[in-house]
Inverse folding.
């Protein structure tokens, strides 16, 4: 039986992959074609420098969406490892990790991004560091809770009885049973990370111009909101629409796997 969430995920991935690989020119300016409306030559019109909006939106997918996937995967990996460690070790290790999580949860990603950029120069690397410094905490908290729950199960006690070590138990037994909730949580966190990256790019902390990013496109387009509102509405719709679809996918996975 075909699973709707699998079809939806494959459809999203295909669209984003095609958009990211389209051989389009998104940086060359054509001042004679400024603020053109939608046409056969420019399906979404042109911006203030005569650049094709659709081309910039497609190229911006590479930094906005695929970079978000990289950031979410990095946060999930770091948070899961620390959550497994604290959940299985317990005691002082668990208390230390959870206190660090409590502190970082209270720090806005934008503030962290400003601090990182003050130390480094603006760019994708700085954005990844800023998101990673705070984005791992929800995964660590969830992985800790799942590990505490799973380590009291009979199959873990059986593995201990036959002499399996802590690392083997955590990787071979606990992690596979905690993987589904973590994957669903990653989908739910995607929207938060995408919005954080778009907000940081909007503030000028992302890749330098003329590299197209959805947040940077919003920042450029706001100057011409009453002249060409599509320059704001189109990237805003891309951010909100992508976040909504992936969040719905995460909710679907969460409900489906929790009922099994």
């Amino acid at each position: 039986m075909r699973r709707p969430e699998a079809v939806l995920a494959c459809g999203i991935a295909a669209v984003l992959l095609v958009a990211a690989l389209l051989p389009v020119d998104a940086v060359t300016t054509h001042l004679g074609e400024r603020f053109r409306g939608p046409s056969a030559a420019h399906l979404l019109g042109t911006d203030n420098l005569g650049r094709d909006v659709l081309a910039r939106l497609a190229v911006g997918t590479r930094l906005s969406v695929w970079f978000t996937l990289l950031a979410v995967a990095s946060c999930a990996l770091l948070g899961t490892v620390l959550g497994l460690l604290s959940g299985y070790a317990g005691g002082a290790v668990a208390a230390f990790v959870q206190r660090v999580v409590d502190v970082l949860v209270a720090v806005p990603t934008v503030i962290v991004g400003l601090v990182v950029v003050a130390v480094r120069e603006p760019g994708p690397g700085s954005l990844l560091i800023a998101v990673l410094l705070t984005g791992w905490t929800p995964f660590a908290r969830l992985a800790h809770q799942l590990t505490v729950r799973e380590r009291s199960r009979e199959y873990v006690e059986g593995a201990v009885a036959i002499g399996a070590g802590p690392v083997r138990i955590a990787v071979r037994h606990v992690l596979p049973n905690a993987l589904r909730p973590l994957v669903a949580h990653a989908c739910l966190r995607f929207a938060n990370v995408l919005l954080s990256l778009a907000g940081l790019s909007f503030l000028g902390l992302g890749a330098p111009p003329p590299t197209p990013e959805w947040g940077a496109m919003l920042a450029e387009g706001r100057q011409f909101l009453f002249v060409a509102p599509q320059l704001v509405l189109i990237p805003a719709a891309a951010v909100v629409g992508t976040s909504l679809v992936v969040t719905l996918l995460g909710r679907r996975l969460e409900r489906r796997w929790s009922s099994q």
